[in-house]
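Narrative of activities, Objective 1.

The group set out to show that a structural description can be obtained from nothing but a protein's sequence at a throughput compatible with the screening campaign. Below is one input-output pair from the validation batch, recorded exactly as produced.
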Amino acid sequence: MNVLQTTNLCKNYGKLKAVNSLNLTIEEGKVFGILGPNGSGKTTTLGMVLGVTKPSSGSFSWFGKGNDHEVRKQIGAILERPIFYPYMNAQQNLELNAAIRNIGTESIEKVLDMVGLLHRKKDAFKGYSLGMKQRLAIASAMLCDPKVLVLDEPTNGLDPEGIADVRQIIYDIAAMGKSIIIASHLLYEVQKVCDEFCVLRLGNLIHQGPVDGFSEQSKVELGSADMSKLREALASVLGISQVIEKGKYLEISGGKGFNAAEMNATLFQHGVTLNHLQVLEQSLEDQFLKILKENDGPTV
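Output recorded for this entry:
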């Protein structure tokens, strides 16, 4: 079953086409990423399919049943920062959210435990870190035990620890069999958590496919005055999957965790200075930027 299907979905603001004839199909049980730079139409797309923004033309359907209010009750979403009262604690804020949405409160402790805030449920919201506030927002979205969770830039502004916390929550919710849709401009976050993704550019869909089908390999060619020392030092570099002798150079293949700049720094720390470094194959990030560049065009 498809969770969401859009057909020629458009949103115009005067002459500006914020979203242009978008055709997306998102399958049940997937973690799907909507990826693109700021201004690409990600939030506008989510606003339309969540009933916040009226499409200029086109249509969309949730679960093959349309898009009325009853269907949207099966969706938990964080489109903008939800309103929480600073002097109320987490439990009180969730009780109020449940009352506003006319849903029960029996799952409050469960969702607080899910996001790691059960032990802080009596603490005032004003004392929460940004990461804790985002986790509480996810808890609020999960109150109705939705079939699909929609998150707009869930790690935006968070520190590395906060990003890791939210990422783990996404893993946990996906493991429950929930479908998740994430809009983000962060390639590495989409790569880490999503099964499939699409790329938007100036409101246009320019790529869609599985994350695994998008190459994660990098290949670089290295040379040094002391090749023996270089070979020894490479053992300290993370992410290297293969080292091949190529004449007077070494060809290095790297997968996840491999970064050429970090490799160079690590080698230097081990007393190796490179006299040759050439990129032979693009990284995932390079390919993403290439897709954007190839589809670049003037704004309207």
